[in-house]
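Batch 3, record 17
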Amino acid sequence: MALARRGGIGRYYNVNGWLFVAPALGLIALFMVYPILWSLWMSFQSGRGMMLKFAGFANIVRLWNDPVFIKALTNTLTYFVVQVPIMILLALILASLLNNPKLVGRGFFRTAIFLPCVTSLVAYSVLFKGMFAHDGIVNATLEAIGIIGEPIPWLTHPFWAKVLVILAITWRWTGYNMIFYLAAMQNIDKSIYEVARIDGVPAWARFTHITVPLLKPVILFTTVISTIGTIQLFDEVYNLTEGKGGPSNATLTLSLYIYNLTFRFMPNFGYAATVSYVIVVLVALLACVQFFAARERDR
Amino acid sequence: MNTPITRIATTAFTYGFVGLMAFLSIFPFVWMLLGATNSSIDIIKGKMMPGSALATNVSAFFTQVNAPLVFWNSAKIAILATILTLAVSSLAGYGFEMFRSRYRDRIYSALLLTMMIPFAALMIPLFIMMGKAGLINTHLAVVLPTIGSAFIVFYFRQTTKAFPSELRDAAKVDGLKEWQIFLFIYVPVMRSTYAAAFIIVFMTAWNNYLWPLIVLQSNDTKTITLVISSLASAYYPDYGVVMVGTILATLPTLAVFFFMQRQFVQGMLGSVK
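Prediction for the assembled complex:
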């Protein structure tokens, strides 16, 4: 305000700048900031449907005694802990292999590996469900080459259903992360690698001591967005395991549980909002940890 | 260390690994295409040869689903969301980069923080808001909450750093107003940025599932993602029909990607720099 009152050019800049950013800020305020505060308020209320009453911390207490919630939380964290590191490492290795200009057909390989992230989460979930059916093509192939003796119950066994979800999201998102790494690798000065090669640094060491440290900001970025994505997992589990969350809730995620609480069971908006705030807290917490870890290693 | 044998082994490993990954990435697409030509039983059994059931599957799909309407619903939502998002976000990206205000950086940081807000925490209030506004079962309700995207604003601001400020200064000297500079100079110069953002937003909107699942409850407003999901969740899904559906659902995004691939990679480069 003080700046604007000084008049002249400062005022002109301000008014114009605000006009340019106003539509975006307005929409985000209306459709993100307002609802997130509303659902915070709702999480302290309880009742059926729209008949909500203030309930203090009752919902938070209920969380601890809700085995389905604990199950959803454990599953979500399992996906995160197992899947994100596998995918990030795989994407990094693929990117550094495909960044080699001497590799014949690298354009084809890049496109092929990127292709999965063009599909919709629903479409590929549906495909995976068919491929991993009990007498489906995956089991038939694994049996034919002698890896397994009898079909793996991908969709009906609690453990294998989780493995299937992890396989599916890795298939969908690895190429997406790889593109970020490839783009970042284009900015690394090639002579660094030349010098290292002449000094006899082996490929693996070049990868861990040059590529990974130089890509750290991008790795941090992809880790944070992958974390946010995995913690919110919904489409895949809903479509792979027919909306129920798998055999005895084995693949149930927090997002799916919120959906069930709101639109499938007797609606309880207050409690569902509380569960949704668990996701907010998790995302914030994990992102903080990741930023902090990245900063620590800088010293 | 660098003996011919290790070099050959490394090369063999590289091609083997990359080739396997490429195969695994493409396989579901091949399975989907072949599936559309086979009967449901053959598909599940893993027949990897083209069959003769394509016509049956296609006609079954078209009798079970009002395909033109469903396709139109998806297209309408995706195109509307893309145009509005690009307009709003590029204005904001330009504004945040070009204008100085003492609050700018603080507001921008706050905006970036909204990227971390999970959708699950918004859906109940959003659903009630849409209900009160009488927008349940309308495509507007699907599009509205997606327009203001912090990520796309961030993307436009990052790439705006590469916009030559000499152009803007010269235009100012010529007496152009700020909105004229934006519309007649910035937009044409930044078209590869727009193309990349187009791909990202279009795909996200076309593939969106959870929010349309909540808001679109009547059959005549449903999108293709909702339809293939319900086809596949039948007790005995007809996989031939499902395959036709997944192909139709995947084709537009695949086409957009292949037509704009070059811009996409360029745009990605811009955002990482």
